[in-house]
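FORM 12-B: Structure-to-Sequence Request
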């Protein structure tokens, strides 16, 4: 009698080519497998393309009518990522109406796109979600000939595990995950993920509503890779997460900023960018990287959608607007992923470097890059 779990059987079928990547995603998600696990399996099983896959492809004639723009650009992006004047300035410069919708998690993003919602031109998922969206045929390949500034991107942010050919995403901003805390309410600055095991702060702490961030933190706490597949290491991370849960007020991501500002939450696992926004309203909020780190570098970017098949690019030359970009950085406390010597101002200052764990130095993992949406959203 086989002792394999249904997920192990699916992964084996994928690796042996008996199951397409698209069908693997659909069946695994149907079994309740987390998005991050599905993405990790897809990355590990680089083969497995089979009948039923819908790999994204560029438009048939990308050069056709290159100067013609559609009148509307629809963007689906994380909350609080754009400065207040970015969209109005864009609309004024290009004569294109921009509609922006927001989400708070990769799971929310994938669920909405998978439900058949169509019309978005740009999305901004994390690395493992990009892998899933690509397998489902929901994102479009890019036409690099229309993105001359790709040469300015630092090598660390190129040829990633989720976009090895650099044809699905374009980097925009990056940052990392750490601990935000109230200096006036927490006497000793936390230096470890162990703070979430401290009963003295029980009921006044939150961790992120993101499985990869939470489990990754506890894997790193024990000195393991956040990409560990070792059953014993994962079991220990689960135990540490459960122990921390008893001290948490809730699992909450970006919206925790308001509670940090008010003091209702004293310690929060949070992205550095959201912490910077909260600090702008209350200077008693500080950000630290735990000594164990987390190995997550978040990356964001731009891309084109399948409307290009009709010779009508939606994005005006896919070029950056430097002044607007810097305002977005100032708003969210992130940095551009440009090569050394070109980086704009904004924390954190260090550029990630290649690490020995298939991860980058400030500490990669699921970087984010915005992606254009493919024909699966249009019912193809």
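FORM 12-B RESPONSE
SEQUENCE OUT:
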């Amino acid at each position: 009698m086989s002792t394999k779990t249904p997920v192990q059987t699916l992964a084996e079928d994928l690796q042996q080519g008996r199951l397409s990547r698209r069908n693997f995603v659909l069946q695994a998600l149907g079994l309740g497998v987390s998005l991050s696990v599905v993405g990790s399996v897809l990355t590990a099983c680089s083969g497995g393309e089979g009948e039923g896959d819908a790999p994204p492809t560029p438009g048939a004639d990308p050069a056709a009518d290159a100067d013609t723009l559609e009148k509307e650009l629809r963007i689906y992006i994380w909350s609080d990522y754009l400065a207040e004047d970015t969209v109005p300035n864009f609309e004024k410069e290009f004569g294109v109406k921009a509609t922006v919708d927001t989400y708070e998690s990769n799971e929310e993003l994938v669920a909405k796109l998978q439900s058949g919602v169509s019309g978005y031109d740009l999305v901004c998922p994390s690395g493992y979600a990009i892998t899933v969206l690509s397998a489902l045929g929901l994102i479009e390949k890019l036409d690099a000939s229309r993105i001359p500034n790709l040469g300015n991107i630092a090598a660390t942010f190129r040829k990633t595990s989720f976009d090895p050919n650099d044809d699905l995403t374009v980097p925009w901003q990056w940052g990392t995950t750490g601990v935000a805390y109230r200096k006036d309410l927490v006497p000793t600055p936390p230096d470890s993920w162990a703070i979430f095991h401290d009963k003295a702060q029980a009921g006044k702490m939150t961790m992120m509503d993101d499985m990869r961030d939470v489990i990754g933190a506890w894997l790193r706490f024990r000195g393991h890779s956040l990409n560990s597949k070792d059953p014993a290491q994962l079991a220990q991370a689960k135990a540490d997460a459960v122990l921390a849960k008893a001290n948490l007020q809730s699992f909450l991501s970006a919206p925790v900023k308001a509670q940090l500002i008010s003091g209702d939450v004293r310690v929060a696992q949070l992205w550095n960018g959201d912490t910077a926004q909260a600090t702008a309203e209350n200077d008693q909020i500080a950000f630290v990287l735990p000594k164990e780190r987390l190995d997550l570098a978040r990356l964001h970017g731009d891309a084109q959608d399948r409307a290009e098949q009709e010779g009508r690019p939606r994005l005006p030359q896919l070029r950056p607007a430097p002044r607007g970009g810097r305002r977005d950085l100032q708003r969210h406390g992130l940095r551009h992923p440009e090569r050394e010597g070109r980086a704009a101002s904004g924390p954190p200052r260090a550029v990630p470097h290649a690490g020995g764990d298939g991860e980058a130095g400030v500490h990669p993992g699921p970087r984010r890059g915005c992606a254009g949406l493919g024909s699966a959203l249009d019912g193809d």
